[in-house]
Amino acid sequence: MGTIVVTGGTGTLGRHVTERLREAGREVRVVSRHSAPYAVDLRDGRGLDAALAGAGTVVHCATTPSGGDERAARRLIDAAGRAGVAHLVYISIVGVDRVPFGYYRTKLAVEGLVERSGLGWTILRTTQFHDLVLRVLQGAARLPLLLPVPAGVPDQPVEVREVAAHLAELALGEPAGRVPDMGGPEVRTLEDLAEAYLRASGRRRRVVRVPLVGASYRAFRAGGHLARDRAVGTGTFEDHLRRHFAPGARG
After folding, report:
1. Measured between alpha carbons, how far is 138 from 162 in angstroms, rounded to an integer?
2. Is 0.90 surpassed by the pTM of this model?
3. Which SUPFAM superfamilies does its entry note (predicted)?
4. Which residue in 81, 107, 76, 80 sits closest to 94, CA to CA?
């Protein structure tokens, strides 16, 4: 069966994928910039060949909005080819082909690299994680009195643990190509999600709808990042908030 390598295996998604795969009895090798003994920065690739030696499957969760994902993917694909990896699993985002947002364009470009890699591959697109929505709202709430959100933008956040479970299942199977998208259980406005955050956190702010401009904003307003017909997730944003703000919870 071979070792399964998880890039970004200490991150928001990767650590849950790693946990699921180990629960399934598989040997998992975590690759990230600070994870000994396989501390690898995919942008320069040093140590990558050793990290992939003997691997049968790679789950590519490592990503950074600050840039470098395409270069990292090329290095990973080249090294996977040298190592004889049979299955490359990649996590992407719903709407990367519909929303002209810079990070989304990068994710779409990496999808293309995976598809043309010559390896067996699987790509899963999901909607935004609850964790990301919460971080965005926490950042906006740093302003006094107000919590601004983009006007008229819907969202469909999904529970990261559910995504991890599905991604691990895909990694344990055969290459499946582009699989059906995965979305959270509810499509809601950002204003509604902001109000839920304020109630859970006990913070007092007035939610303000801020109209923006540009093609990306129009695409988000039109719901290009949603998977309305694939609302297969079950955990709600309130479920996530209850765990996050529970007494003794981390963060």
Report:
1. 23
2. yes
3. NAD(P)-binding Rossmann-fold domains
4. 107
Where along the chain do its domains lie?
3-244
SS3 40: coil
Main-chain dihedrals φ then ψ at residue 236, nearest 5 degrees: -95, 170
Q: What percent of the chain has pLDDT over 70?
A: 99
Q: In angstroms, rounded to a whole number, what is the distance separating the alpha carbons of residues 27 and 47?
A: 19
Residue type (1 letter), 215: A
**Secondary-structure breakdown of the chain: helix, strand, coil percentages, each rounded to the nearest 5:** 40, 20, 40
Phi, psi of 171 (to 5 degrees): -65, -30
The residue written with tokens 């719901």 in the block is: 223
pLDDT tens digits along 76-107: 999 999 999 999 999 999 999 999 999 999 99
pLDDT at 1 over 70: no
